[in-house]
Amino acid sequence: MPLNALTGSRVRERRLALGLRQAEVAKATGISASYLNLIEHNRRRIAGDVLRRLAQALATEVDALEEGAPDDLAEALRAAAQEPGGERAELERLDEYLGRFPGWAGVTAGLRQRIGQLERAVAALNDRIAHDPHLGAALHEVLSAVSSVRSTAGILAETEDIEPEWRSRFHANLYKDSERLARGAEALVTYLEGAEQDATAGTGSPEEELDRWLAARGWHLEGDAAAEAEALSTDVARDMARRLVAAHSADVKHLPDGAFDAAMEAAEGDPLRVAARMGSSVLSVMRRIALRPGAVEGLVVCDAAGALLLCKPVPGFRPPRFGAGCALWPLFSALTRPFQPIAAELVMAGRNGDRFAARAYAEATFPDGFAGVEVRQAGMLLTPLAGIASAAALRVGATCRICPEGGCPARREPSILAGI
Amino acid sequence: MLIEDEPNIAEAIRFLLTRDGWQVTALADGGVAEQAVRQDRPDLVILDLMLPGRSGLEILMALRADPALSGLPVMMLTAKGQGRDREAAERAGADLFMAKPFANAEFVAAARSLVGL
């Protein structure tokens, strides 16, 4: 079974799943059985009315036949099969499972996602217990008071001939330490109660929450964005959203709408030429291009460590939410060569082979001057391309784990996709 | 010489050791400890790991770096959960560790053992 079947294959799978014969379905659709056979073997393209009637005959949606099960769902299930205990999952029948039991598949993928969220929450809580300075200080305070109480009480209990002066002094110390203990215990309880609330509120990582928020508002960062960002549930997500909105309004200030549009037109959308005309940073121009309302461009920005700071996905190119991206991205070539523009045609590995014109550029700034550190950032602007890839196109993936590209010399970990 | 910033613990230790026949000088600040040790030349230094001014570990390293003081017995007071600091102090040459909270009799016996009483 192919990784992601074509429309015809999905028609066939659906029909077989329903236990229908070609002749029956053809009749209900108003086409000949031999034509349906050609469709099912992907030898005839179908669209429009025929596809609509076919979907009706198969009691399904046009989208389901056209696009198949969402890639995300298939990927989530493949990833689930990689987990311990997943060895017996019938990966080769994944498409069939998705087609026949979309509800159960969704539940399985949802459970896996929830487990991932909980694992991250546990890791975060472990981190907190191990490294939290407040918790450490609170425990130290309690321990100090306990030590003092133990020694002092020991002296009072064991020293029979203790002078009255010393005795009253130690009693006073005991009293003070007992107060300290009570306060320390109270602080600990308050802290632990707070931690409990945080943990239950943490449904998913802040990055996921931010992604959902950005997608929901179509990456529109003007107008009410600053106010809406405050409604995010975690501090981290709020902070990240605030930074994004602030960076965007700074970009808009440097590159105001009218002047920016005029420069874009004069420079034919070339970020370097726009930056030169407007005397601004190239990364600002890239962000401005990708974040203007209705922009089709995708954008990835990383820091000097290669960590992705900003990922605006485009259909066909979805940067990983966690971990590093594909090592072959021109983004990383640009990162090592600041101020050198790198343009490349990209073809995404995989079924659709979406194509993009990639333009990557890295800048270094020194916010603290000569005595300070270099802050380097690289950006890669992706403009979707139509048509057939040229021979010079560079094949890249999103990230190794979900990349089907076999024999890639830059691969760093196995793919979860079947057969790689 | 006792270098401990918790006044009530310092008072308890001072009482215990004085009763046992020791002469005790107590300091609460790590910053002045090294100088005081050089001046007083005590028989035993009891050093808390966490001190204001200068950490017990730093003081210990300074003492051990001086050949004249390298043989001075040092007891470190540690709290539970300071495993990493304790390892560092062990490497720096602490003679004995006393974990808080401690039993009084155990503490006095440990102090005696360090000066060969």
Record keyword descriptors for this entry.
heterodimer; A: 420 residues; alpha+beta; 434 Repressor (Amino-terminal Domain); Beta-Lactamase; 3 domains; 17 helices; 54% helix; 10% strand; B: 117 residues; alpha/beta; Rossmann fold; five-stranded parallel β-sheet; 5 strands; 16% strand; Lambda_DNA-bd_dom_sf (chain A); DNA binding (chain A)
Give a verbal description of the structure.
The complex is a heterodimer of chains A (420) and B (117). Chain A has 420 residues and is of the alpha+beta class. Chain A has 3 domains: 105 residues, Orthogonal Bundle (434 Repressor (Amino-terminal Domain)), CATH 1.10.260.40; 70 residues; 125 residues, 2-Layer Sandwich (Beta-Lactamase), CATH 3.30.450. Helices cover 54% and strands 10% of the residues of chain A. Chain A contains 17 helices and 6 strands. Chain A has a 6-stranded mixed sheet, with helices on both faces. In chain A, a hairpin with a 4-residue loop joins β1 and β2. In chain A, α2 packs across α3, α6 packs across α8 and α11 packs across α13. The two termini of chain A are 14 Å apart. Chain B is 44% helix and 16% strand. Chain B is α/β, with parallel strands linked by helices and 117 residues long. In chain B, β4, α4 and β5 form a beta-alpha-beta unit. Chain B has a single domain, classed as 3-Layer(aba) Sandwich (Rossmann fold), CATH 3.40.50.2300. Chain B starts with a strand and ends with a helix. Chain B has 5 helices and 5 strands. Chains A and B meet through α9 and α10 of A and α1 and α5 of B.
